[in-house]
Amino acid sequence: FKPEPNERTSLYSFLRRADKGYGQVGARWNADEWLASTDPTQGTELCDIEELLYSFEKNFEALGEVDFADRMEQLMFNAFPGTVTPDMWACQYDQQANQVLVSVAKRPWNGNSDTSNIYGFAANFPCCLSNMHSPWPRYVESMWMATEDNGMVATVYGPCHVKAKVGEGSTIEITEETDYPFSDRVRFTIHSERPVSFPLHFRIPSWATRAEVSVSGEPTPSHPPKGTIFKIERVWKSGDVVTLNFNFKVRAETRRNNAVSIAWGPLYFVLRIGEAFQKIPAISASRSHEPIPVPPGCVNWRIAPTTDWNYALAIDRNDPQCTITTGKISSIPFAQKGEPVKVAGAKEFTPWQEDVPMVLKFKARHVPQWGMNGSNAAPVPLSPVKTNSPETVVELIPYGCTRLRISEFPTV
Fold first, then answer.
1. What b/e readout covers 362-397, taking b as 16+ CB neighbours within 10 angstroms?
2. Rounded CA gap, 92 and 85, in Å?
3. How far is CA 48 from CA 30, 95, 117, 309, 384, in A?
4. 325-378: pLDDT as tens digits
5. Which among 147, 152, 197, 279 has most CB atoms closer than 10 A?
Protein backbone atom coordinates (compact mmCIF):
# COMPACT_ATOMS: atom_id res chain seq x y z
CA PHE A 1 0.00 0.00 0.00
CA LYS A 2 1.37 3.41 -1.00
CA PRO A 3 -0.69 6.30 0.36
CA GLU A 4 -1.31 9.33 -1.80
CA PRO A 5 0.20 12.62 -0.53
CA ASN A 6 -3.25 14.05 0.15
CA GLU A 7 -4.14 11.03 2.29
CA ARG A 8 -1.13 11.62 4.52
CA THR A 9 -1.92 15.35 4.72
CA SER A 10 -5.53 14.65 5.69
CA LEU A 11 -4.47 12.19 8.37
CA TYR A 12 -2.04 14.59 10.04
CA SER A 13 -4.53 17.44 9.77
CA PHE A 14 -7.05 15.33 11.64
CA LEU A 15 -4.52 14.36 14.34
CA ARG A 16 -3.61 18.01 14.98
CA ARG A 17 -7.27 19.03 15.22
CA ALA A 18 -8.17 16.11 17.48
CA ASP A 19 -5.20 16.73 19.80
CA LYS A 20 -6.03 20.44 20.05
CA GLY A 21 -9.75 20.00 20.66
CA TYR A 22 -9.93 16.77 22.66
CA GLY A 23 -6.41 15.62 23.57
CA GLN A 24 -5.63 13.96 26.89
CA VAL A 25 -2.50 12.47 28.44
CA GLY A 26 -1.54 9.08 27.04
CA ALA A 27 -2.35 9.85 23.37
CA ARG A 28 -6.09 9.48 23.83
CA TRP A 29 -8.96 11.84 23.08
CA ASN A 30 -11.98 12.62 25.22
CA ALA A 31 -14.70 10.62 23.51
CA ASP A 32 -17.59 9.19 25.55
CA GLU A 33 -19.57 8.32 22.40
CA TRP A 34 -19.04 11.87 21.08
CA LEU A 35 -15.82 13.85 20.96
CA ALA A 36 -16.14 16.12 23.97
CA SER A 37 -13.45 18.62 25.08
CA THR A 38 -10.03 18.84 26.74
CA ASP A 39 -11.58 18.78 30.22
CA PRO A 40 -9.66 16.11 32.21
CA THR A 41 -12.89 14.89 33.87
CA GLN A 42 -14.59 14.15 30.55
CA GLY A 43 -14.70 10.44 29.74
CA THR A 44 -13.01 8.22 27.19
CA GLU A 45 -14.54 4.86 26.34
CA LEU A 46 -12.33 1.77 26.63
CA CYS A 47 -13.32 0.75 23.08
CA ASP A 48 -11.87 4.05 21.85
CA ILE A 49 -8.48 2.96 23.19
CA GLU A 50 -8.59 -0.45 21.53
CA GLU A 51 -9.74 0.83 18.15
CA LEU A 52 -7.29 3.74 18.22
CA LEU A 53 -4.43 1.35 18.97
CA TYR A 54 -5.41 -0.66 15.87
CA SER A 55 -5.62 2.50 13.74
CA PHE A 56 -2.14 3.67 14.81
CA GLU A 57 -0.75 0.21 14.07
CA LYS A 58 -2.13 0.35 10.53
CA ASN A 59 -0.96 3.95 10.07
CA PHE A 60 2.57 2.91 10.98
CA GLU A 61 2.39 -0.02 8.53
CA ALA A 62 1.40 2.37 5.75
CA LEU A 63 3.64 5.34 6.52
CA GLY A 64 6.45 4.00 8.74
CA GLU A 65 6.45 7.21 10.77
CA VAL A 66 7.50 7.24 14.41
CA ASP A 67 4.59 9.31 15.71
CA PHE A 68 2.13 6.43 15.28
CA ALA A 69 4.30 3.94 17.16
CA ASP A 70 4.88 6.52 19.92
CA ARG A 71 1.13 6.85 20.30
CA MET A 72 0.71 3.08 20.42
CA GLU A 73 3.07 2.88 23.38
CA GLN A 74 1.40 5.76 25.19
CA LEU A 75 -2.03 4.16 24.80
CA MET A 76 -0.79 0.74 25.82
CA PHE A 77 1.13 1.83 28.91
CA ASN A 78 -1.23 4.54 30.20
CA ALA A 79 -4.82 4.74 28.98
CA PHE A 80 -5.43 1.00 28.65
CA PRO A 81 -4.09 -0.29 31.99
CA GLY A 82 -5.63 2.76 33.68
CA THR A 83 -9.15 1.75 32.64
CA VAL A 84 -8.96 -1.94 33.65
CA THR A 85 -8.09 -3.53 36.97
CA PRO A 86 -4.53 -4.89 36.95
CA ASP A 87 -5.74 -8.49 37.20
CA MET A 88 -8.05 -7.93 34.16
CA TRP A 89 -11.16 -8.97 36.11
CA ALA A 90 -12.98 -5.66 35.61
CA CYS A 91 -13.02 -2.65 33.32
CA GLN A 92 -14.50 0.82 33.04
CA TYR A 93 -16.62 2.07 30.21
CA ASP A 94 -15.38 5.68 30.66
CA GLN A 95 -12.07 6.69 32.22
CA GLN A 96 -11.00 10.18 33.34
CA ALA A 97 -7.58 11.83 33.38
CA ASN A 98 -8.49 13.51 36.68
CA GLN A 99 -10.45 10.74 38.37
CA VAL A 100 -10.88 11.17 42.13
CA LEU A 101 -14.02 9.10 42.71
CA VAL A 102 -15.24 5.94 40.96
CA SER A 103 -18.96 5.53 41.59
CA VAL A 104 -22.45 5.15 40.18
CA ALA A 105 -23.36 8.81 39.68
CA LYS A 106 -24.39 11.36 37.11
CA ARG A 107 -21.46 12.79 35.21
CA PRO A 108 -21.34 14.96 32.08
CA TRP A 109 -21.20 12.03 29.66
CA ASN A 110 -22.65 12.32 26.16
CA GLY A 111 -25.28 9.60 26.31
CA ASN A 112 -23.63 7.15 28.73
CA SER A 113 -25.21 5.98 31.97
CA ASP A 114 -24.48 6.54 35.65
CA THR A 115 -22.62 3.20 35.72
CA SER A 116 -20.05 4.19 33.08
CA ASN A 117 -17.35 5.14 35.58
CA ILE A 118 -17.22 2.05 37.82
CA TYR A 119 -14.85 -0.87 37.34
CA GLY A 120 -17.03 -3.89 36.74
CA PHE A 121 -17.96 -6.88 34.63
CA ALA A 122 -19.88 -4.95 31.97
CA ALA A 123 -20.33 -1.39 33.19
CA ASN A 124 -22.82 0.60 31.07
CA PHE A 125 -22.63 -1.74 28.03
CA PRO A 126 -20.81 -5.02 27.24
CA CYS A 127 -18.81 -3.81 24.22
CA CYS A 128 -15.85 -2.87 26.41
CA LEU A 129 -15.98 -6.27 28.08
CA SER A 130 -15.66 -7.79 24.60
CA ASN A 131 -12.81 -5.51 23.56
CA MET A 132 -10.69 -5.41 26.73
CA HIS A 133 -8.82 -8.61 25.83
CA SER A 134 -7.48 -7.43 22.46
CA PRO A 135 -5.02 -4.57 23.21
CA TRP A 136 -2.18 -6.68 24.64
CA PRO A 137 -2.23 -9.22 21.77
CA ARG A 138 -2.57 -6.31 19.34
CA TYR A 139 0.50 -4.65 20.86
CA VAL A 140 2.55 -7.86 20.80
CA GLU A 141 1.78 -8.57 17.14
CA SER A 142 2.93 -5.04 16.29
CA MET A 143 6.30 -5.19 18.05
CA TRP A 144 8.15 -6.28 14.89
CA MET A 145 7.32 -5.64 11.25
CA ALA A 146 8.95 -6.62 7.98
CA THR A 147 10.52 -3.88 5.84
CA GLU A 148 10.59 -3.60 2.06
CA ASP A 149 14.40 -3.91 2.04
CA ASN A 150 14.11 -7.50 3.34
CA GLY A 151 14.87 -6.48 6.89
CA MET A 152 12.93 -5.89 10.10
CA VAL A 153 11.90 -2.91 12.20
CA ALA A 154 11.50 -2.84 15.98
CA THR A 155 8.24 -0.88 16.08
CA VAL A 156 7.25 -0.76 19.76
CA TYR A 157 9.30 -2.05 22.67
CA GLY A 158 9.00 -4.70 25.37
CA PRO A 159 10.47 -8.10 26.23
CA CYS A 160 9.83 -10.58 23.42
CA HIS A 161 11.26 -13.18 21.05
CA VAL A 162 10.73 -13.07 17.28
CA LYS A 163 11.51 -15.50 14.45
CA ALA A 164 11.47 -14.30 10.85
CA LYS A 165 12.93 -14.62 7.36
CA VAL A 166 15.28 -11.85 6.23
CA GLY A 167 17.75 -11.07 3.46
CA GLU A 168 17.51 -13.69 0.74
CA GLY A 169 15.31 -15.97 2.83
CA SER A 170 17.47 -16.87 5.83
CA THR A 171 15.68 -17.56 9.12
CA ILE A 172 16.90 -15.63 12.14
CA GLU A 173 15.65 -15.12 15.68
CA ILE A 174 15.95 -12.06 17.92
CA THR A 175 15.57 -11.99 21.69
CA GLU A 176 14.60 -8.59 23.11
CA GLU A 177 15.41 -8.08 26.79
CA THR A 178 14.21 -4.98 28.61
CA ASP A 179 12.21 -3.54 31.50
CA TYR A 180 10.66 -1.03 29.08
CA PRO A 181 8.52 1.04 29.66
CA PHE A 182 9.97 1.20 33.20
CA SER A 183 13.48 1.43 31.75
CA ASP A 184 15.09 3.38 28.91
CA ARG A 185 17.42 0.55 27.85
CA VAL A 186 16.69 -2.25 25.38
CA ARG A 187 18.97 -5.15 24.41
CA PHE A 188 18.61 -7.33 21.29
CA THR A 189 20.50 -10.60 20.71
CA ILE A 190 20.67 -12.12 17.21
CA HIS A 191 20.47 -15.89 16.71
CA SER A 192 21.19 -17.51 13.34
CA GLU A 193 22.75 -20.70 12.00
CA ARG A 194 25.12 -18.78 9.73
CA PRO A 195 26.12 -15.12 9.07
CA VAL A 196 23.29 -13.21 7.36
CA SER A 197 23.32 -9.81 5.65
CA PHE A 198 20.18 -7.76 6.24
CA PRO A 199 19.12 -4.39 7.68
CA LEU A 200 17.70 -3.91 11.17
CA HIS A 201 15.68 -0.76 11.83
CA PHE A 202 15.06 0.67 15.29
CA ARG A 203 12.52 3.31 16.25
CA ILE A 204 13.99 6.19 18.25
CA PRO A 205 11.03 7.57 20.25
CA SER A 206 10.27 11.27 20.23
CA TRP A 207 10.92 11.38 24.00
CA ALA A 208 14.51 10.10 23.69
CA THR A 209 16.99 12.72 24.90
CA ARG A 210 20.34 11.61 23.45
CA ALA A 211 19.95 8.12 22.09
CA GLU A 212 22.98 5.83 22.17
CA VAL A 213 23.34 2.67 20.07
CA SER A 214 26.03 0.03 20.31
CA VAL A 215 26.60 -3.19 18.36
CA SER A 216 28.37 -5.96 20.27
CA GLY A 217 29.85 -3.38 22.63
CA GLU A 218 31.03 -0.96 19.93
CA PRO A 219 29.13 2.38 19.89
CA THR A 220 27.85 3.60 16.56
CA PRO A 221 29.54 6.77 15.30
CA SER A 222 26.42 8.96 15.62
CA HIS A 223 23.54 9.62 17.99
CA PRO A 224 20.33 8.94 16.04
CA PRO A 225 17.89 11.86 16.35
CA LYS A 226 14.70 11.36 18.31
CA GLY A 227 11.59 10.72 16.26
CA THR A 228 13.45 8.80 13.54
CA ILE A 229 14.02 5.22 12.38
CA PHE A 230 17.68 4.21 12.78
CA LYS A 231 19.01 1.65 10.30
CA ILE A 232 21.91 -0.75 10.86
CA GLU A 233 22.85 -2.84 7.83
CA ARG A 234 25.62 -5.40 8.18
CA VAL A 235 26.43 -9.08 8.14
CA TRP A 236 24.94 -10.33 11.39
CA LYS A 237 26.45 -13.28 13.23
CA SER A 238 24.79 -15.38 15.90
CA GLY A 239 25.43 -13.76 19.27
CA ASP A 240 25.61 -10.19 17.96
CA VAL A 241 24.00 -7.77 20.42
CA VAL A 242 22.43 -4.37 19.78
CA THR A 243 21.90 -2.14 22.80
CA LEU A 244 19.73 0.99 22.79
CA ASN A 245 19.91 3.61 25.53
CA PHE A 246 17.31 6.35 25.07
CA ASN A 247 18.32 8.47 28.11
CA PHE A 248 14.81 9.56 29.07
CA LYS A 249 14.35 12.70 31.15
CA VAL A 250 11.33 13.90 33.10
CA ARG A 251 9.32 16.40 31.07
CA ALA A 252 6.38 18.70 31.79
CA GLU A 253 3.54 19.27 29.31
CA THR A 254 1.14 22.22 29.46
CA ARG A 255 -2.54 21.28 29.46
CA ARG A 256 -5.95 22.98 29.84
CA ASN A 257 -6.07 26.04 32.16
CA ASN A 258 -2.27 26.18 32.04
CA ALA A 259 -2.15 22.97 34.05
CA VAL A 260 0.87 20.69 33.84
CA SER A 261 1.26 16.95 33.24
CA ILE A 262 4.39 14.96 34.01
CA ALA A 263 5.90 12.31 31.73
CA TRP A 264 9.01 10.12 31.49
CA GLY A 265 9.51 8.08 28.36
CA PRO A 266 6.11 6.73 27.23
CA LEU A 267 4.75 6.88 30.80
CA TYR A 268 2.65 9.63 32.34
CA PHE A 269 2.95 10.04 36.08
CA VAL A 270 -0.06 10.92 38.20
CA LEU A 271 -0.74 11.64 41.85
CA ARG A 272 -0.81 8.58 44.08
CA ILE A 273 -4.17 8.77 45.89
CA GLY A 274 -5.20 6.39 48.67
CA GLU A 275 -7.91 4.09 47.28
CA ALA A 276 -10.71 2.45 49.28
CA PHE A 277 -12.35 -0.37 47.29
CA GLN A 278 -15.96 -1.29 48.01
CA LYS A 279 -17.83 -4.16 46.35
CA ILE A 280 -21.16 -2.97 44.98
CA PRO A 281 -24.07 -4.80 43.34
CA ALA A 282 -24.14 -5.19 39.59
CA ILE A 283 -26.99 -3.03 38.29
CA SER A 284 -28.35 -2.25 34.86
CA ALA A 285 -27.42 0.91 32.99
CA SER A 286 -31.08 1.87 32.66
CA ARG A 287 -32.73 4.47 34.86
CA SER A 288 -34.30 1.73 36.97
CA HIS A 289 -30.84 0.41 38.02
CA GLU A 290 -32.31 -3.05 38.63
CA PRO A 291 -29.86 -5.81 39.69
CA ILE A 292 -28.34 -7.89 36.90
CA PRO A 293 -26.58 -11.29 37.07
CA VAL A 294 -22.81 -11.56 36.62
CA PRO A 295 -20.61 -14.67 36.39
CA PRO A 296 -19.38 -16.13 39.69
CA GLY A 297 -16.29 -14.35 41.00
CA CYS A 298 -16.84 -11.11 39.09
CA VAL A 299 -17.10 -7.93 41.14
CA ASN A 300 -18.16 -4.32 40.55
CA TRP A 301 -16.06 -1.77 42.44
CA ARG A 302 -16.74 1.65 43.91
CA ILE A 303 -13.44 3.38 44.75
CA ALA A 304 -13.21 6.40 47.04
CA PRO A 305 -10.17 8.52 47.95
CA THR A 306 -8.62 8.18 51.39
CA THR A 307 -6.02 10.94 50.98
CA ASP A 308 -6.01 14.50 49.65
CA TRP A 309 -5.85 14.84 45.90
CA ASN A 310 -5.97 18.64 45.44
CA TYR A 311 -2.30 19.59 45.13
CA ALA A 312 -0.37 22.06 42.99
CA LEU A 313 3.15 21.16 41.89
CA ALA A 314 6.01 23.51 42.79
CA ILE A 315 8.16 23.01 39.70
CA ASP A 316 10.01 24.75 36.92
CA ARG A 317 8.17 23.56 33.79
CA ASN A 318 11.31 23.89 31.68
CA ASP A 319 13.38 21.81 34.09
CA PRO A 320 11.14 19.76 36.38
CA GLN A 321 13.18 18.44 39.29
CA CYS A 322 12.18 15.31 41.21
CA THR A 323 13.53 12.23 42.91
CA ILE A 324 13.07 8.99 40.94
CA THR A 325 12.88 5.63 42.72
CA THR A 326 12.75 2.36 40.82
CA GLY A 327 11.80 -1.02 42.21
CA LYS A 328 11.05 -4.58 41.23
CA ILE A 329 8.63 -5.16 38.37
CA SER A 330 6.10 -7.58 39.79
CA SER A 331 4.11 -10.25 37.97
CA ILE A 332 1.18 -7.78 37.92
CA PRO A 333 3.17 -4.64 37.07
CA PHE A 334 0.25 -2.19 37.01
CA ALA A 335 -1.01 -3.10 40.52
CA GLN A 336 -0.50 -0.88 43.54
CA LYS A 337 0.43 -2.30 46.92
CA GLY A 338 -2.76 -3.10 48.83
CA GLU A 339 -5.01 -3.10 45.77
CA PRO A 340 -7.42 -6.09 45.70
CA VAL A 341 -6.46 -8.53 42.95
CA LYS A 342 -7.43 -12.05 42.03
CA VAL A 343 -4.35 -13.94 40.89
CA ALA A 344 -4.50 -16.97 38.62
CA GLY A 345 -6.16 -19.89 40.38
CA ALA A 346 -7.39 -17.86 43.35
CA LYS A 347 -11.01 -17.89 44.49
CA GLU A 348 -10.95 -14.55 46.30
CA PHE A 349 -9.52 -11.07 45.89
CA THR A 350 -6.54 -10.40 48.15
CA PRO A 351 -4.42 -7.26 48.71
CA TRP A 352 -1.43 -7.09 46.36
CA GLN A 353 1.82 -7.19 48.33
CA GLU A 354 4.25 -5.46 45.94
CA ASP A 355 4.50 -1.83 44.93
CA VAL A 356 4.67 -0.07 41.59
CA PRO A 357 7.89 -0.16 39.52
CA MET A 358 8.59 3.60 39.59
CA VAL A 359 7.85 6.54 41.90
CA LEU A 360 8.59 10.22 41.22
CA LYS A 361 8.62 12.59 44.21
CA PHE A 362 7.84 16.28 43.62
CA LYS A 363 7.51 19.34 45.80
CA ALA A 364 3.90 20.49 46.03
CA ARG A 365 1.39 22.53 48.03
CA HIS A 366 -2.16 21.65 49.06
CA VAL A 367 -4.87 23.76 47.35
CA PRO A 368 -7.93 23.55 49.67
CA GLN A 369 -10.12 25.76 47.45
CA TRP A 370 -9.92 23.18 44.66
CA GLY A 371 -12.74 20.79 45.52
CA MET A 372 -15.44 18.62 44.02
CA ASN A 373 -17.96 19.44 41.32
CA GLY A 374 -20.65 16.85 41.94
CA SER A 375 -18.95 13.46 41.60
CA ASN A 376 -15.98 14.88 39.71
CA ALA A 377 -12.96 16.94 40.59
CA ALA A 378 -13.72 20.59 39.86
CA PRO A 379 -11.92 22.18 36.89
CA VAL A 380 -8.20 22.60 37.48
CA PRO A 381 -7.61 26.13 38.85
CA LEU A 382 -5.84 28.46 36.44
CA SER A 383 -2.09 28.40 37.09
CA PRO A 384 -0.27 29.78 38.88
CA VAL A 385 -2.47 29.32 41.95
CA LYS A 386 -2.11 30.96 45.36
CA THR A 387 -2.16 28.89 48.53
CA ASN A 388 -0.95 29.38 52.08
CA SER A 389 -0.37 25.66 52.59
CA PRO A 390 3.17 24.62 53.48
CA GLU A 391 5.37 22.91 50.94
CA THR A 392 5.29 19.13 51.06
CA VAL A 393 6.38 16.19 48.91
CA VAL A 394 3.91 14.13 46.86
CA GLU A 395 4.37 10.84 45.04
CA LEU A 396 3.58 10.44 41.36
CA ILE A 397 3.24 6.92 39.95
CA PRO A 398 2.54 5.55 36.47
CA TYR A 399 -0.96 6.37 35.17
CA GLY A 400 -1.63 2.71 34.39
CA CYS A 401 -1.04 1.77 38.04
CA THR A 402 -3.95 3.91 39.27
CA ARG A 403 -7.71 3.70 39.53
CA LEU A 404 -7.87 7.17 41.15
CA ARG A 405 -5.55 9.88 39.86
CA ILE A 406 -4.74 13.50 39.14
CA SER A 407 -2.82 13.77 35.85
CA GLU A 408 -3.33 17.50 35.20
CA PHE A 409 -2.03 19.69 38.04
CA PRO A 410 -2.09 23.40 38.74
CA THR A 411 1.28 24.90 39.62
CA VAL A 412 2.49 27.42 42.22
1. bebbbbeebeeeebbbebbbebebebeeeeeebbbb
2. 9
3. 9, 11, 15, 27, 33
4. 999 999 999 999 999 999 988 999 999 999 999 999 999 999 999 999 999 999
5. 152
